[in-house]
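Field log, afternoon session.

UNIT: design team B
ACTIVITY: writing a sequence onto a fixed backbone
BACKBONE:
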């Protein structure tokens, strides 16, 4: 049903991969076979991104900072930015991951920390607002993030808090990498100014799991994503190439 397809495509306006996958399935005579092919391609892409990203990073015993969740829970296996982390860990090159808790839905605390613990990778959580300060103190070797949509010029939409990390990394001289599959690059979107940013309701900010934090009558501004300009990005790592915007 065309209406159902369009509703699904529009469910996440900032992210491009959902619409891409829906279009792939809708155009197929065998949607299940197409879904299985997309699954297999995603597994191969995550392995390739993990290897390419690990080879790009220099040094041993690396301390990595990240935001949101970019692991197997956000992909099929391994993930994007967290796939690089897993490869570093498997090769004995990971000292620690500093994971932002990722307010308001706490994907870093709930999901990334769980995945890191499952893989046995050393990690600590930090408040989102602490990220730029910790970068300024030194000792962080790289920031790795995923992406929901990458514009043709390299501007990158990702979970809210990514832009602040990029600014802090640029000021501190810490390399800032985006790890995402080729399907996240939207050639039809020229710059980040053309990316629709999803604004969510105030309840995510003023309460947590039904417990009210702010006084009644207090509103909230809740953009779910932000856009990091391409000139703050050291490189974009995909399954096929390394792009330096």
């Amino acid at each position: 049903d065309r209406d159902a397809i369009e509703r699904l495509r529009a469910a996440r306006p900032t992210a491009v991969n959902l619409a891409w996958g829906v279009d792939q399935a809708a155009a197929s005579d065998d949607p299940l076979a197409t879904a299985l092919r997309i699954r297999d391609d995603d597994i191969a892409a995550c392995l390739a991104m993990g290897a390419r990203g690990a080879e790009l990073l220099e040094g041993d015993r690396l301390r990595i900072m990240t935001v949101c969740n970019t692991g197997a829970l956000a992909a099929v296996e391994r993930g994007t930015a967290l796939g690089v982390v897993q490869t570093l860990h498997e090769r004995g090159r990971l000292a620690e991951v500093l994971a932002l808790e990722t307010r308001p839905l706490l994907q870093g605390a709930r999901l990334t920390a769980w995945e890191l613990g499952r893989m046995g990778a050393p990690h600590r959580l930090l408040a989102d607002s602490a990220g730029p300060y910790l970068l300024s103190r030194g000792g962080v070797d790289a920031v790795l993030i995923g992406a929901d949509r990458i514009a043709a010029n390299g501007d990158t939409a990702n979970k809210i808090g990514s832009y602040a990390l990029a600014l802090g990394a640029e000021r501190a001289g810490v390399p800032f990498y985006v790890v995402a599959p080729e399907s996240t690059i939207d050639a039809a979107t020229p710059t980040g100014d053309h990316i629709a940013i999803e604004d969510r309701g105030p309840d995510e900010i003023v309460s947590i799991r039904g417990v009210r934090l702010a006084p009644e009558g207090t509103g909230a501004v809740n953009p779910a994503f932000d856009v990091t300009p391409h000139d703050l990005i050291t490189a974009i790592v995909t399954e096929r190439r390394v792009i330096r915007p």
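LOG NOTE: Residues 236 and 243 are 5 Å apart (CA to CA).
NEXT ACTIVITY: expression trials, pending approval
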